[in-house]
């Protein structure tokens, strides 16, 4: 580990006192690597049966595991099938502590690149909706890719400043995650470059941004709704300081106790405004457990309110309807057929509530199903990843060891033996084992590759 900023170390010594030496020593230990099973695609139990990696459970999330650096799970075809997301183990805690249930309307306000949004989306089990927002357009693109890779159909991926979202969606959400932009002090071991950009002014700068974010988030939370605030930094002003601000400015917001795990520390009232409630916050310090630094606070907006109404108005025209009916005939599709929208020639299945979003800058609304071309429908890559193998009438299922998988992911045309695909011509869902990777089209015994250029491995 390179030299850590002096002002940071002085403050940490002041905060941690007799634990400071152990804290400092933790920077000599290697970082931890984590993988979170995407339960939308496979149960933890089933994944453990097929996993080629050496996994150890992460205590605070049932689908989280440590893996060995030598395992390289990003290179395995199961990664391209979206069976897991690679995530630093402490970073799994915020989504694990926000009790999302199927049918909820959920917002991840600062969502890119999607580490937590993909878990929140999985826990919705295709019911309700996930609004995943990020202020940065380049980061929002990575967010879109990860949500599509994980096969989450009921999402609205936006690229907005929080205040604009708040204007469009007042008291709309049951659950909100604010994984706030922060000074990143907890990531110095994982990403030494973050330490280089840090200076003493960063915590106050981010504390101001965080207050703006939570102001918008609270206005979008339904009475009775839950908000999880998290950062990956140690500085008091961004953690207990921000929560003290909320408690003082928003009397409707209360702190809740959350599950705690071995090694988690309580929030320190003295690092905020002295309110004893602040002990309900949670801190993760790297010298107490196997993960990087994090802070979390679960809050509730007092009161109660009913369900958000589902609304939907547009319908495809007759010609589009005919092509879609032909393509999807006999298929057990994983989305409601009554929420199809055609925009230009692109076909989407929209999330349940749709009319609140006018004027919001977005990258994707719902599941992109595919394109209407002259006299035919071409299915999309996100559709492939949102399907289960058995839901598509014809498939080519390859074992992870089959060299054609690597060639498919590079975009090459593949040789196929007679009988390998369920049907001997037309669209095929290409799978590793039984997990979809993308589409191909079988023409005269050759599989034309439909894996999109932007997804290919070089
Ligand atoms: C800690 S990162 C989020 C990580 C993400 N939740 C995950 O688990 O992958 C914070 C995010 O906040 C975004 N951000 C920065 N300023 C913001 C603002 N004023 N409003 C909303 N998001 C902001 C950044 O672009 C960044 O992607």
UniProtKB/TrEMBL annotation:
This is SAM-dependent methyltransferase. InterPro entries: Methyltr_RsmF_N, MeTrfase_RsmB-F_NOP2_cat, MeTrfase_RsmB-F_NOP2_dom, Nol1_Nop2_Fmu_2, Nop2p, RCMT, RsmB/NOL1/NOP2-like_CS, RsmF_methylt_CI. The lineage of its organism: Bacteria, Bacillati, Bacillota, Clostridia, Lachnospirales. One of its GO terms (biological process) is RNA processing. It holds the Pfam family Methyltranf_PUA. PANTHER family: 28S RRNA (CYTOSINE(4447)-C(5))-METHYLTRANSFERASE-RELATED (PTHR22807:SF30), NOP2 YEAST -RELATED NOL1/NOP2/FMU SUN DOMAIN-CONTAINING (PTHR22807). One of its GO terms (molecular function) is RNA binding. S-adenosyl-L-methionine binds at residues 110-116, 134, 179. Keywords: Cytoplasm, Methyltransferase, RNA-binding, S-adenosyl-L-methionine, Transferase. It comes from Blautia pseudococcoides.
